[in-house]
Design goal:
This protein is an alpha/beta fold and about 260 residues long. It has 2 domains: about 1-85 and about 160-265, P-loop containing nucleotide triphosphate hydrolases (Rossmann fold, 3-Layer(aba) Sandwich), CATH 3.40.50; about 95-160, no CATH class. It has 7 helices and 10 strands. Strands 6-7-8-3-9-10 form a 6-stranded mixed beta sheet, sandwiched between helices. Strands 2-1-4-5 form a 4-stranded antiparallel beta sheet, with helices on one face.
Amino acid sequence: MTATACREPFIRFRDVEKSFTTRSGTVSAVERLSLDIADGEFLAIVGPSGCGKSTLLMALAGLTQPTAGSIDVGDERVDGPVTSAGIVFQGAELLSWRTAVENVLLQAEIRKLDPEASRARALRLLSDVGLAAFADHYPDELSGGMQQRVALCRALLHEPRMVLMDEPLGALDAITRDQVQMDLQQLWLRSRSTVVLITHSIEEAVFLADRVVVLTPRPARIAADIPIELDRPRHIADRGSDAFRDYVTAIRDEFSRLGVFSDDE
Ligand SMILES: Nc1ncnc2c1ncn2[C@@H]1O[C@H](COP(=O)(O)OP(=O)(O)OP(=O)(O)O)[C@@H](O)[C@H]1O
Ligand SMILES: [Mg+2]
């Protein structure tokens, strides 16, 4: 059974539109987009550069208001920053003067969570992603992949029900990226939070997600919505399987149909 089956939607986009007024006129970034995301689902969004992915995620995080339509998370309409969410962006954005564990604990300080319990959880998360020995290292003593793992731990410290990630692994080399994808899968399998991941990589989307939504060139609309029915946990070697390749090919064909190509080429 896939994670999407028979579940109530937790996130609901209804006829969401977003346009920006600029000096050279109005730019429509998202056009009448409706999408349901189930509680506990891992959804990946792929689409051509500049099509409106980040805009969509910012709207879901409540950091920008849709021009029309609505977004609900749980029982609440999004009309301001969704402070309960865990958010990871492309760069790890760690504070250079704080160690790895102290960076993770920033989340606890902001939310005024119990320091002792938070520290224990931070250390456990760091250990889950193979950084037990690096908890007291400073960011400049960590590789890019390690820093990105610390950022993941920070986003998950408060056990958010919703985790939003915009190209979190985009800056990593291919091998490190594979490793952090495995870590991300493990963390999600344990937490079962609802994840929305934006990625340029079709392979990454298929590897991680329960469902991949392909967006059109700007303004973003849904071009395809593809459930990924591969067993979990998934392993790097599974990428050679026929089933995996078929999903990647189907999504790549969708990109070609839209007149664009992906980063995986
Ligand atoms: N604050 C803004 N003001 C004006 N235009 C904006 C603003 N934010 C985004 N846009 C425009 O909206 C469109 C979508 O941008 P967005 O950042 O959502 O794309 P994206 O799909 O995330 O791209 P990428 O894959 O390159 O990250 C672009 O044409 C962009 O120029
Ligand atoms: Mg973007």
